[in-house]
Amino acid sequence: MNDGIGLALKYLGLKETPDEEQLLMVGSAMEEIKKVARPQFLHRFYPLHFDGSRYYVDADLNLDYKSTYGLFSRKGSDCLCILVSTLGVAVDKRISRYKDTEPSRMVLLDACANSLIEVVTDEYQKKLNLKEETFRYAPGYGDVPLTMQRQIFDLIPEISKIGIELDACNMMHPFKSMTGLIGFKA
Amino acid sequence: MNIKDRFGKEFIVFDGGFGTMLQKYGIKTGVQSIEMNTIEPETVQRIHREYLEAGSEIITCNTFGCDRFHTTDKGLDMNELIEGAIRNAREAIGGREDKFCFYDIGPCGKLLEPLGDLPFEDAYEVFAEQVRIADGKVDGFIAETMTDLYELKAAILAVKENSNLPLIASVSFSDNGKTLTGASPEQMVTTLEALGVDMLGINCSLGPRELLPIVKRITDVAEKPLLVQPNAGLPKFDGENTYYDIDADEYALYIGEMIEAGIAGFGGCCGTTPDHIRKSIEESQKHEFKYDPKPYRTIVTGTSTMVEIGNRVIRCGERLNPTGKPKMKAAILEGRLYDIVDEGVKQIEKGADVLDVNVGIPNIDEEAVMVSLVKQLQEVIDVPLQIDSTDPKALEHACRIYNGIPLINSVNGKKEIMDNVFPIAAKYGGVLIGLCIDEDGIPPTAEERFKIAENIVNEAAKYGIRKERLIIDSLVLTASAQQKEVMETVKCVKYVTDRLGCSTCLGLSNVSFGLPNRPLINRTFIVMAMLAGLKLPILNPFDRELMSAIDAFEVLNAKDENATDYIERHANDVTVAATSAAADKPAEGDAGKTEESSGDPLFDAIVKGQKHKAVDEASKLDKTPLEIVSDSLIPALDKVGNDYDKGKIFLPQLMVSAETAKLVFDEIRKNIKTDSSSTKGPIVIATVEADVHDIGKNIVKVVLQSYGFEVIDLGKDVKASVICDAVREYKPIAVGLSALMTTTVVYMRKTIEALKEQGLDVPTFVGGAVLTQDVADQIGATYYAKDAMESVRICEQINDEVTK
After folding, report:
1. Closest Cα to residue B291, out of B222, B365, B197?
2. CB contact under 8 A, B115 and A174
3. Are the beta carbons of B697 and B737 closer than 8 angstroms?
4. Number of domains chain B is built from
5. Residues B532, B564: one domain?
6. pLDDT reported for residue B382
7. What are the chain A neighbours of B147 within 8 Å (beta carbons)?
8. How many domains would you assign to chain A?
9. DSSP 8-state symbol, B629
10. Are B615 and B714 within one domain?
């Protein structure tokens, strides 16, 4: 099972194989993050239509971008999954606790949290068993603007029930939260 | 009849879910529930009537989410909707005297600072404006589905300060048994009871089966009665619609179990229907009313921790107090509150359970500083704090914005002080320290001090402050000046503990003032006081022997069962005899390792990030500080920086070395003559407006400091004008700006332009994940720093040019 340590090491700038000390540092940080993480998830499906030039759904969500076009057309997707996940607010608190006293630990915890949310989201996505699924895309990647976050949050008000808020700058709180777009075949 | 009089005496029956009923009657998508009050009032009234007929005694007005964010900000008329909702409820009740309607306050949908960006006082106003409209028109208020006790505090204050009607506060728990912001059911009980709600509640999120264990945890400790409104099971989603899977019969059985667990009221939340209520009422008639108030305990809370006082000895860290601490005084005057937060965190690491917070120095705005410090402390510390001030305004404001139930230091026997402080403790629910001093000063005998304590307790009762919310300080005088009175203090502790039934606290350090080996006197005194019953010593957590004396005492008085805590903390204690024996043996274990050694132990220690060893080595060196820096410190950091660039070590290791170097620098800086030309910089750094990412900026700060730069860190989300002001004030040699989001790079450009417009000719260096050389050029920055090491190179270069 992928425990996210490899990904965390990458985030922390390691280019060679890790030595024992480095593995220990990351391992203990990952333990600390796992203790306070409260992963929550939410997903919604939308039939995906194509009118000859662009992809769209029957909802107030603009998908007319080069990267989404490429994403869906490559796999012939006819359905869109929006997958929202978070590690919860306690992770944010724990990371910032070290901000002034032990910044090195803060950096470790931050990288582990970034890795952990990817890992748990991957696991959740696997359970959805999406056929011919595309890469998991997100607002902010490629030419998809961050403003799409606002549309997603307006479209799915239940997101607030898993504890995620979107502020005026399209930043999610808690910080360790993700929104993902995945194309698949129904 | 006043419905409040029935709370805790017989079952109170609420209504069930509204949303599901609206869906059943065809609410259109895109229309909010609250809009139905004016679009289809008949439908709203019909649902109310169905619940009333099913047997509900209290219906909640269709006002959940009727705050300004969901109404005014969306072009709807909040006033109209609220009055419409209340009108609909009244119509449905039709003048019946045995039916009531409560205003439903829901969460405002935004997270409060510091986790989110909504200030506490703004949240208060969002709730207060609803209360003002509804007061007098409804029979009471219920704040429900609250997932953050801090937001709930704002709602509770909003109701209590704008209405005299009954108040029920209901919390929503996740399936891990905690609220969204990490509070336990026990913490909820303490907080809501201390803030003076009339009934506790839990609702939503979970079905009755999942809520049952949480119900039991609450009824095990609660003094106030509990209302439960579970969902009709867990939501199941079939890709299009949400449905709930527990029918009315099964639901009622669970309500029966909760009645056995001691609830005092029930209703239903999402997915429940009038049938669920009907069947629950039938079930309730098969059971007795089992609400059984539990004893009220002395408990204080932080953001997610609660501490009970009166059982185990609770250690209160005393070090956040500027008296006799020039460093802290300087930090306050220079606005470096984060250094004080640092000291707070260290005290907790050393074992403090709660922290005293005092910023009393002359000629400052104590209210503003105290409020700011409390907010910053609560951002990173979750233990309870003790708000310590003689300024009633500072005390009041800090208690108001405090997240939790604080300790309040202090009140005493003087009438004026009591008149100022009791109302604060009464309103904000805090646990109040009472000092045995009155208009005549500190009485010499224990009996006289005890009389003052009694007086404080009696006067407090007039403000509704029960004695469980008071802790008596019988005052510690110095043994060297008033030796006979030491025992009077101890006697008074015993009197208060045995006769008054209150817990006691003492500020220990005073006793040894003027005597040699102060720690020895302090730790002997604390054992005497603990034997007399002391539960809240205010002490220095860094005094290991003192802390250990408490550990040992709690083994001997059997509070630390099986000495578990003691063994955990002291299993590896090295006693004096063992250390001298070990010192005679040659050091083993190092000889066999092939370690890279440069021959310079300080260099090695910094590279390996061995903080203690490095500081040790530096203090032993017979060199000038500047020699140490150029011979060992800088070369070590350069090696570390190189290894990091090559990817041989990773970021945390770079930072640990940087932290080590900073500690060495602080150590040797003590010997550098205090002339400002020997520190490099200053450099002003900040994360720009609207951006709250500060990890990168903090890394740069640590690394720059380790290279001997003075760094002024303005924090995150910093406006351009504030940065300009700082440049004018500190006259830095460079300004570093950090931004992590494409949307906030624009504020970086704004800042650089503002600096130029205001004639502030200072070089700027920028960094952050979205920055590149191109972007840096576009926004007019002088330099682009791709990482912390590059920032150092840039600043060194600037510094060289400036000092030429």
Report:
1. B222
2. yes
3. no
4. 5
5. no
6. 86
7. 163
8. 1
9. I
10. no
Cβ of A90 within 8 Å of Cβ of B702? The answer is no
Residue B731 falls inside a structural domain? yes
Residues of B in contact with A103 (CB under 8 A): 655, 659, 695, 698-699, 701-702
Chain B residues whose CB is inside 8 A of the A9 CB are 650
Q: What is the pLDDT of residues B587-643, one digit of tens each?
A: 444 443 334 677 888 999 999 888 888 988 888 888 877 778 778 888 888 888 888
How does pLDDT run across B529-560, given as a tens digit for each residue? 999 999 999 999 999 999 999 999 999 999 99
CA distance A96 to chain B (A): 6
- Answer yes or no: is B403 within a domain: yes
Report the distance separating Cα A57 and Cα A79, nearest Å: 9
Angle at Cα B464 formed by Cα B462 and Cα B465, nearest 5°? 100
Are the CB atoms for B117 and B110 separated by under 8 Å? yes
Q: How many contacts, defined by CB atoms under 8 Å, are there between A and B? A: 115
Instruction: Tell me how far apart the alpha carbons of residues B499 and B450 are, in angstroms, rounded to a whole number.
Output: 10
How far is CA B308 from each of CA B217, B469, B715, rounded to the nearest angstrom? 16, 11, 35
Q: Does B182 touch chain A (CB under 8 A)?
A: yes
Dihedral Cα B775, B781, B786, B788, nearest 10 deg? -150
For B251-303, write each residue's pLDDT tens digit: 999 999 999 999 999 999 999 999 999 999 999 999 999 999 999 999 999 98
If asked whether residues B375 and B251 sit together in one domain, one would say no
Same-domain check for residues B626 and B494: no
Q: Closest to B115 (Cβ–Cβ): which among A9, A38, A92?
A: A92
Contacts of A111 in chain B (CB under 8 A): 651
How is residue A41 annotated by DSSP?
E
CATH number, domain of A67, equals 3.40.109.40
Pairwise CA distance, residues B372 & B401, whole Å: 10
For residue A96, what are the domain limits?
Answer: 5-184
Q: Cβ of A93 and B180 within 8 Å?
A: no
Place of tokens 């264990």: B213
**Which chain A positions have a beta carbon within 8 Å of B117's beta carbon?**
167-168, 173
CB contact at 8 A, B45 and B91: yes
Where among B668, B695, B726 does a domain terminate?
B668
Nearest residue of B to residue A93 by CA position?
A: B380
| Residue B236 and residue B331 share a domain | no
CA distance B452 to B409: 16
Smallest Cα distance from B753 to chain A, Å: 21
* Whole-Å CA distances, B314 to B48, B183, B207, B484, B518: 50, 21, 38, 27, 21
B791 and B684 both lie in a single domain: yes
Mind listing the pLDDT tens digit for each residue in B329-382? Answer: 999 998 888 889 889 989 998 999 999 999 999 989 999 999 999 998 998 788
How many beta carbons lie within 10 A of that of residue B119, not counting itself? Answer: 15
What long-range pairs does B670-678 form, CB within 8 A, spacing at least 24? B671/B625, B672/B625, B672/B626, B677/B803, B678/B626
User: Judged by CB atoms within 8 Å, which residues 120-139 of B form the interface with A?
Assistant: none
CATH of the domain at B472: 3.20.20.20
pLDDT digits (tens, 9 = 90+) for B640-697: 888 887 878 888 888 888 888 888 877 877 765 554 455 788 999 999 987 777 778 8
Nearest-CA distance A72 → chain B (Å) = 20
Phi–psi pair at B175, nearest 5 degrees: -70, -5
Which among B180, B647, B655 has the least Cβ separation from residue A163? B180
A107–B655 CB contact, under 8 Å: yes
Domain holding B311, by residue range, is 299-539
Which of B339, B647, B659 is closest, CB to CB, to A16?
Answer: B647
Query: Does B722 reside within a domain?
Result: yes
Same domain, B708 and B728: yes
Residue B658 sits in a domain whose CATH number is 1.10.1240.10
